[in-house]
Amino acid sequence: MFFLIFGVKGRITRSNADDIIEKGCPGCGNDLELSDLKRWFTLFFIPILPMQKIDTFYHCKNCDSSYKQNIKSTIIASKKDKEKVQKEAMKMFSITLVACMTHMAKIDGKISKEEEQELKRLSKDFPEFEREIESSIKKVKESDDNEYVFQMLKNATNILTAQGVMSIIGKTAQMLLADGKIDKKEEKLLQDYLLVCGIPRDLYKTIIDKIKKH
């Protein structure tokens, strides 16, 4: 005897609005799709015809998590906050880097033509912060002591990771090694940079060795 088996089943399908929040899932970081939960008429357990929409929400296919539609504004806000933090970190990195390079370039009493060109090139590498970079270079040139640069490095440690700060010091050392050597005054100042940032002085040798290998 043959029986027809039919019923009603809930099913999640992608919404006609075709709204996707890329990498927006708080659970796993994958995409969220605007989706509808509908009642479907089934025949032999196969969904045949949508009957009624129950709800609309954002759904992650990867981890099967679902979120109310108002999560979109929260995610967008958090992305903006993240972008703001990233921008601030890049700004701090660039102006501190040129401050250290300018400081180191003037240690022998005069900034060479080649060093001036290198500083100009750096400002072009970070066009978004060109005005702040030029201001930082000017302040270092006009300063008679180390305090401005030391304060910049202290500020950087509050925003950047230790790796970011060491990258600044490493790039400064790289500039000095362009002529093949670092003299005693330059070496001491680089070690002072490390100490100001709360990084052990003996990591100086590790940084220099790494630069020489590359």
The tally of structural domains comes to: 2
Largest sheet: 5 strands, antiparallel
> What's the total number of strands?
5
Mean of all residue-level pLDDT scores: 83
**CATH-defined architecture of the largest domain:** Orthogonal Bundle
Helix content: 40-55%
Helices and strands: which structural class? alpha+beta
Q: Count the DSSP helices.
A: 7
Q: What is the highest CATH level, the class of the largest domain?
A: Mainly Alpha
Helices and strands, in order, run as EEEEEHHHHHHH
Rg over CA atoms, rounded to whole Å, is 29 Å
Q: What is the third-level CATH name, the topology of the largest domain?
A: TerB-like
* Bulk shape: elongated
Identify the notable features of this structure and list them briefly:
alpha+beta; 2 domains; 214 residues; five-stranded antiparallel β-sheet; elongated; TerB-like
